[in-house]
Amino acid sequence: MGDLSDELRRRRSGLQGRISTGRILMSTTTKRLRIGFIGAGTIGSFLIDRIHQSPELGMDVAIVAGRSERSKGRDGVRDRGINWTVDVIELLNAGIDVAAEAASHEALASAGVQCLARGIDLIPASVGALVDNNLLAALRAAANAGGSIMHIPSGGIGGIDAVQAAALVGIDRVAMTINKTPKAWSNVPYVLRHGFNLEHLDEPLT
Fold first, then answer.
1. Is the separation of the CB atoms in 17 and 160 below 8 Å?
2. Residues in CB range of 152: below 8 A, 6 or more apart
3. Residue 63 zone, left/alpha/beta (φ > 0; ψ -120 to 50; rest)
4. pLDDT tens digit sequence for 173-201
5. What is the DSSP letter of 150?
6. How far out from the chain centre does Cα 146 lie?
7. For residues 132 and 190, is the Cβ–Cβ distance under 8 A?
């Protein structure tokens, strides 16, 4: 999830802990961070499980908003006694401190903007969506209006932190291969711009 910003920790009265890449700084107070997740796919489920199994982190998953009642992460969320909803309004009204988006570009564009506008800090995993200048402007405007913070991590691409570190000593080229199901690319601006037909793929598309 990356570091929660210093601004976030100052704004959360009594909170002294954070999750940082490669290490855990634990809370030393009784104030616990309430987190809401948007999406419970591969990334979301991993983070939800990690937080649920680690009370020493000083945070709790209060609610998870999924795409539908058929979402594959629904049963796992409910089995852990965590509230599940398909209504983003319910997530907004759950009294959370932070929303972690781990769903899709589309989810970031809709639910992410609403969270920031309501004063809920946001950690998006779908950082690739931020190449859309209109979306980035909308998120910034919502954060300004709500007095909230959007903390941008490395996103769903593993190893970016290592690439950033290597860049300090000099690298010429980096090649990364990522495999996703066609459905995961639905409504992604790059796909729409190039007119790829995701429903009729019979071989890998690169």
1. no
2. 124, 127, 130
3. beta
4. 887 777 777 877 777 777 888 888 888 88
5. B
6. 19
7. no
Nearest to 54 by CA among 22, 24, 82: 24
DSSP secondary-structure letter at 110?
Answer: I
Q: Is 185 left (phi over 0), alpha (psi -120 to 50) or beta?
A: alpha
Phi-psi region of 4 (alpha: psi -120 to 50; beta: other; left: phi over 0): beta
pLDDT at 43: 87
Place of tokens 């639910």: 111
- Chain-centroid distance, C-alpha 193: 24
Say what the alpha-carbon torsion angle 47, 146, 148, 127 is, to the nearest 10 degrees. 60
Q: Are 179 and 172 spatial neighbours (Cβ–Cβ below 8 Å)?
A: no
Q: β-strand 121-124 against 59-65: which pairing, if any?
A: unpaired
- Rounded to whole angstroms, how far apart are CA atoms 36 and 142? 18
* Backbone dihedral region for residue 170 (phi beyond 0: left; psi -120 to 50: alpha; all else: beta): left
Q: Where are the alpha helices (DSSP H) in 23-129?
A: 42-52, 74-79, 88-92, 105-107, 113-117
Q: What is the pLDDT of residues 134-155, one digit of tens each?
A: 999 999 999 999 999 998 887 6
- Identify the residue with better confidence: 14 or 173: 173
